[in-house]
Amino acid sequence: MQVQSPMGTKLFQQDIVQKISSPGNIGIVLRCWHDAEEVPPVVPHVDPLMRPLSYGEVGVTFISSGGQREILPQSDLHLVDRALHPGDYCKRSFDDVRAGVVTNIKVKGRISHAINGAQVEGWRFLQDLEDRADAEVGDYVAFDDWIGQIIEVFDESIIQVSSGQLVRLPEMGSRLTVGETGTNILSPQLSATQIGSLGHNGGKDVVLAVKHNTYAISWLAVNQALDIAITENKSRPKQFWSGEDLEKLTLVRGHSDLEMRVGDRVYLKDTTGLPFTEHGKQGDMTGVVQVRTFLVTETSTEVEVLWQDGTKESLNAVDVIPYLNPDEYDCWPGDHVVFKNEEEKRPAIVQSVNAAERTAYILFPDTGNIELASLLELDAHGNSDHDANNPQAESFGVRRGDFVFIHALGTTNRLENPRVPRIGEIEPWVRENPFSHGELSGWRKELQDIGCSIATRRTSDHLQEKLMQRPITGDGKLSWCGEVTGLNLNGTVEVTHPDGTAATYSLERLTRLHDGIEQLEDDVWDAGSEDYHSYSDDDDWDMDTEGQSQIPLDDYWDISSTGGIRGDDDANVEDLEDDDEADLMEVDQALWSPEAEIPIPDTNESNIPDLPRFKSSNQEADPHLSEVSTPMIEYNEDDVKWNRFEILASAPPDHAFYSSPPSQPSKIFLGRISREYRVLRSSLPDSILVRAYEDRTDLLRCLIIGPDNTPYQDAPFVIDWMLDSNFPHSPPIAHFLSWTNGNGRVNPNLYEEGKVCLSILGTWSGDKNEIWSAARSSLLQAFVSIQGLVLVKEPWFCEPAYDKLRGTEEGIVNSRLYSEKAYVLSRGFVRRALEIPLGGLEAEITQLYRTGRRLQKVIDDAERLIQKSKDNAEIAPEDIDLAVPRLSAGGIITLERTLAKLRRLL
């Protein structure tokens, strides 16, 4: 395995490369080390591209070698071209903080004959190409004010078998392309006897032509410019299209879909003097077939880039790299954003961005003023965790390349600017199971029957299908939809219609189309995540409590002097009935013996990095749970004392799960919770406080103080917990109290809507040693995991896909930006905890930040960091290991706003 260098990978998906040792061998990168791989591929690998990649390796399919696939070191390859599209983000290099957005592309290509490989001299351009006759899967089509999308096709292919005979092969799906050769082209559809009857002698078959005879179309959305009374009466068109009906459809393609890519089969407007091949003979079923199809063997792409600072540049695509992991605050001129702090929220349009200093000039359309703002106070996308379940509020504005509907003049999309709705749900039939009892079923079977019928009739009826219509330049028939091609600094949007004309519209007249193929791809990702459950407030965590009432803890429990728990029948929890014991066997019966203890993770300071400076007093622990029984601890600078664990009389109304109905606690539950409490009483780290409640044994609240030399240092992190009726068989449910004002997550694992993403909580996948186990796991372990695994020095790397970027230029830059954001936002947590009393923790917050003067420390530390950042923009060598060594100008602007409020709290 190669040693990782800090340079980052050179090659990315869809890059066009050639072997250095064989310059004519052109290939396409299908996998690269940079790709996020959720699950390691299964071994052994049938596909040579599917083994895990080492650093610096890429998986390539070579066009000029009959589709040969192999994994190679990127040092063996030369980058020929880079496939970028309008709307893609790019950079000059990994460590360049300035990024660009591709606004346009121009592609030129070299071609050869698809069958005999004869090269055609010179470059060919888009204007040299005939528009391809068939629509492909993913293409949009229009009919009767509806926009639909091709979901599947049925093909008829003409194959020349090794004997020279031509065969018409009907089959579903776009499996074959012109010029493809192989010994098994016919085998998926024909039996060995049928193949033998064709005179097949074991040589290679050649694909001469491919035609789609039937299309399955999902109709996504209707013309938004129509009156609602009209649209309500417009029924969806039929799902299968073929024959003469095809000319009723209009094929709608975006600009980038028309451009050449390596591996494409293309047709030229003028083929005079160019190579062609003839196959078959007169009188045969297929007649003589002339092939004038060409294969794109090499491309060169020129991109137009709009940089964040507003400058524009045309350059070769290989001179930039894809920007795959943009910062959540990244934005570009013309983008619609929302400027927000706790005093106001205002829509704005970005004019220019200083990426290094994280500032932007923004136009407020309500006043016409242009002002300087911190990027940390701009919501650039509108897709915060709070809006995750609202498809209409998915994002702000539109992006180049988006397909949009235009509302009639004088009407709007009915959303508050800059939100733009998204419509277009694929029809339910698309998601039907493709097979039943090993055979095609549902709509796929129907598509196959239609396609085979047409293929059979073609030989006797000489069928001649019509072609789909193409938009006629300037005819205006589809002026109600189009592709976003420009974002203007005044907030208007340039849309290019299918007929080639362009017009400018206000944002509120646009609605985005939700691509159906993207929806299906999302289904695949969701299906791949079914091995774990993502818990959130919306999940069904009812405790089967119908008809049950709330029972105070001390009405049910008799606390003995040894800390044991007796039920209302004075039976020890270990003296359970047989059916209870059977339930316990599901986990580990030994866990429930009187001597059993809850697992305790090692919480010394060598395992939890940089804990805040607290010290424990020598107070003896009271063995009774019903009384304060935890050792007191002191803030060593000011003799602040507090209780790490305490049981309060009642749960506070501001608890995230307060309104959830409690369940009748079982003896098993009470036995386990007793042991959990004993562990928390004796083993909590000094910087974690936990509160339990007599009237709600299913609820807890914990306060975690951010560890030293992390972006979270000295900040309070409050998490509410609920234990469902199945605890400890199921993990505790966490809700993080996010106080970011909707300005983004403070940590990749801590969502704004409250989700805590962690393996032990069942909200992220993990191996058997990481997930919750009733026998091995404990509440203490969950609390400590958050402090030790989440509130870390470099939180950007908590995102699983980013961990392998440690040490790379990209990882260093992005981690530094994230840590600055985390530091600035978490300073606001201090203010929020002091301004709004937190149920059950009011005294502790006051002791820590006021009595113990931790608030003064937070202010002093922040002021020193601001001054150091102003004095020296570069990171000093002695500060290189600090979690936040310096701040950008944008970080300073936002932090100073928070500091002004913190000073008033003194």
UniProtKB/TrEMBL annotation:
InterPro entries cross-referenced by the UniProt entry: UBC, UBQ-conjugating_enzyme/RWD
Keyword Transferase: yes
Protein name: UBC core domain-containing protein
Alphabetical keyword list: Transferase, Ubl conjugation pathway
Superkingdom: Eukaryota
GO molecular function ontology, one term from the record: ubiquitin conjugating enzyme activity
Statement: the UniProt record of this protein carries the keyword Transferase: yes
The UBC core domain, residue ranges: 668-831
